[in-house]
Amino acid sequence: MAATLGTIYRDTADAHCGAHGCSCGWEPDRRRDIESLITALYEAAQRPNLLPHPTHHLPGRA
Ligand SMILES: [Zn+2]
User: What is the DSSP secondary-structure string of 1-62?
Assistant: First the structure.
């Protein structure tokens, strides 16, 4: 699962690099982003309910 997440991140980051990259404005910072992913994964794993009701709570974004 972790490897899959890493692949998704890499593909997403790659899509934001180069002349034909996505123009949404996000600039991948792999070291910082991976640390954020690790933290988010860890915190999510501590919660008894991994999938709360969609309208109940959305995790904050940096
Ligand atoms: Zn984008």
Answer: -HHHHHHHHHHHHHTTSSTT---S-----HHHHHHHHHHHHHHHHHSS-SS--TTT------
**pLDDT tens, position by position, 14-46:** 999 888 889 899 999 999 999 999 999 999 888
pTM exceeds cut of 0.90 = no
What's the 28 CA to ligand 1 centre distance in angstroms? 9
Spatial contact of 20 and 40, defined as CB atoms under 8 Å apart: no
Please tell me the distance between residue 21's alpha carbon and the centre of ligand 1 in angstroms: 8
For ligand 1, the distance from its centroid to the CA atom of residue 55, given in whole angstroms, is: 25
